[in-house]
Amino acid sequence: MTVPMTRAEALLSSVFGFDTFRPGQEEIVRAVIAGRDTLAIMPTGGGKSLCYQLPALCRDGVTVVISPLIALMRDQVRGLREAGVAAGALTSGNTEEETEEVFQALDAGALKLLYLAPERLAAAGTQTLLRRIGVGLIAVDEAHCVSQWGHDFRPDYLRIGELRAALGVPVAAFTATADAETREEIAARLFGGREPSVFLRGFDRPNIHLAFAAKNSPLRQILDFAGRRRGQSGIVYCATRSRTESFAAALSEAGHSACAYHGGMGPDDRRNVETRFQREDGLIVVATVAFGMGIDKPDIRWVAHADLPKSIESYYQEIGRAGRDGAPAETLTLFGADDIRLRRSQIDESAAPPDRRRADHGRLNALLGLAEALECRRKTLLAYFGEHAGPCGNCDLCDTPPDVIDGTEAVRKALSAILRTGESFGAGHLIDILTGTPTEKVRTRGHDKLPTFGVGRDFSKAEWQGLFRQMMGRDLIRPDPERHGALAMTEAARSILKGEARITLRRDAAAAKSRPMARALVSEDDAPLMAQLKATRRALAEAANVPAYVIFPDRTLIEMAERRPQTLDAMAGINGIGAKKLERYGATFLAVIAGEAVPPVHPGRRKLAGRPEGAVFDRLQAAQSRLARGADGTGKPMSCSPAELARLAERRPRSEGELASMLGERRSERFGAAFLEILSGS
User: Fold this and answer.
1) Domain 405-469+483-496 maps to which CATH number in 3.10.180.10, 1.10.10.10, 3.90.180.10, 3.40.50.2300?
2) Mind listing the pLDDT tens digit for each residue in 443-465?
3) Which of 13, 77, 260, 416 has the highest count of CB atoms within 10 angstroms of its CB?
C-alpha cells in the first residue's frame, strides 16, 4: 500500500499539531503505512502512539490496537477524539451506552481506531467481528507483555499471533524496553516466525535528570525531595505494600496531596487512584510496581524510588514515566545494602530456571553498577543498552563529580576480614572488627585477636558501610541466603585480594548530600502566565470531564508562555495544537495571554489559521474593504462573505471566468482584478 508521506505530514500538522516528526518516528511511520510487519523499540515518551495512530488515518480499514490497561485505552480514545479522530474502545469498563455507541460507529464504517484489551481476544465472536468491520492493521502496545518470563506477562497476548494469521493483516508492535532475548520472543509469538522490520531507537531521555543517593533515613530523603517539588505530579516507588501506605501517610501529613497504590487494594480503590492521578495536578502516588505500565500521563514531573528497583530494565521503565511531554523531569533512586540483599534473595528464591536466575543477577548487577558509577549516569545507562554517549550534564554526577579514592587497600582489608571469619558474618560484625570495636560478639568469638582487628580505623563506621555497599554493587561480595545473609567473596574479588588489580571507590559513600533542586518549567518572568494557563486548562478539563493533559500537555503550555502568541495564526504554530484544538480552545488561551477577550474570528478564517491560505484570506479581505464602494469610493457598497473569501483562498481561481463562477458577474467585475493579482502571487 503506497501512501505519499506528504499526506502523513499534513495529518501530523493538522490533526496532532506537530510540524515535524520526533527522531526515529518517520521511518517507523513509513514502514507501518506501507503494510510491513514492524517491531519498534522506542524509549518511553518517545512518541510510540503516534507511530500507529497516524498510519491508521492513512491506511484503509480499521486499525485494532491491543493495549493492556483500560485506563490507558480510555485516555488515548479521549485524546484522539479531542483531536477530531474517530476512535473507540471495547473494554469491560464500558457502560452499555458506550459499547453500543462503538458498535454503531463500526457498523457505519465511521471508526478508524478500535482499542481492545487482550482479554477480549478470548471472547467468542471477536474474530468474526473484526473480519466484518474490515481490519487493516493490528497495533500492539506494550509488546513485551508477550514474554512469558517478563514481570508484565499477559497470557492473552499469546492470542495475537493467531489473530494476525486469521485476519491476514500486518502487525505493528511497540515496546519501550526489550533486550535481544525478549525481541526474539516477540518476533516468534506475534509474527509467526516471519521477520519483521525492526527499529531500535535511541534509549536516551535527555530531559530527565538522573540521581542516586545512598539511603540515610529514606523517609526524610523522600520528604525533602518531594518538598522541593511541591505541587508537581510525582510517583514514589516502594518495595512493599506497607511502605507505600506509611510513606503516603507521611507525605499527606507534610501537606502534599498523596495516596497509596498496591496490588492488595480492591479494584475500585485502584481505579479511583488511577483516575485521580490522571485528573489531578500535583498528586503524588506512592506505589509498588503494580502501578505504572500503561500510565499515559505526560506531565509527571518526577519519579523517586524509596527502594532499589529489581533490575536496570525496571529502573529504566519506571523513571521513563516522568517527563513524557519532553519538559524537564527529575528522578531520585535510594539504595542501600538491605536493598541489594533483598533483590538477590528474590532472584535466588524464584522459580525461574538457573539460566534465567543468572541473567536476572546480571541485570541487577548492571543497576548496581549504575548506582555506584563514578562518572556520568546517563553514559553508564546508555552503555548498557549498547549506546555510546559523552557526559550529559543532566545527572547528579555531572552536577557534582564524586570525591573518589583508591579503594584497593580498603577492599583487601574487608575481604581479608571476610575470609578470616569463615564467610559467616554480615557487614555490621565485620565493620566492628575492622574499626577495632570490642563488642561482646567480637570478644566472644575471639575476633579481637585477628590480624585484621582495627586495621580499618582510618574510616568511620558510616564510611565502611558505604564501602561494603559499593563492594556489593561491584559484585565483589554477595550475601549467602543459605547462611542468613553472611557475606561471601565472589570470583571477581580474587584479583584485588591477590594484588593483581586496583579499584576506585567513592569517599563518604554513605552520606546522601545531593538533593537536586527542582528545575523550573519556565523562567521567573513567564511563571505567572504559566500558572494562569494551567488554571484555564484545569477548568476546561473539569468541564469536559477529561484529564488536563488531554486539553494540552505541559509542553504546549510552556511554549505558549514563552512565545506568547497574539493571533490564531501564531497559536497554530505552537506544538501540540492541531486544527480541532485550535478551533475549540485557541481563542480562550489567546485571551489569557492577552489579558482580555479577543475579537471573534469567523469560522471560515479560523479554519485557515496557521496555513498559507490564512494570509491570502487577510489580503483578500483588505482588498475588499478598499474596493467596497468601487475604485473611486462612490459606488454602491458590495462585499463577499468570509466563507466565500475562505473558499477563494483555498481554491485559488486563476482566471476571470473561474472567479465569476464563484462570486457572480457583478462582484467579479468590482473585485476581480485585485483578487486575481493576490491569488496569482500567493
Assistant:
1) 1.10.10.10
2) 999 999 999 999 999 999 988 98
3) 260
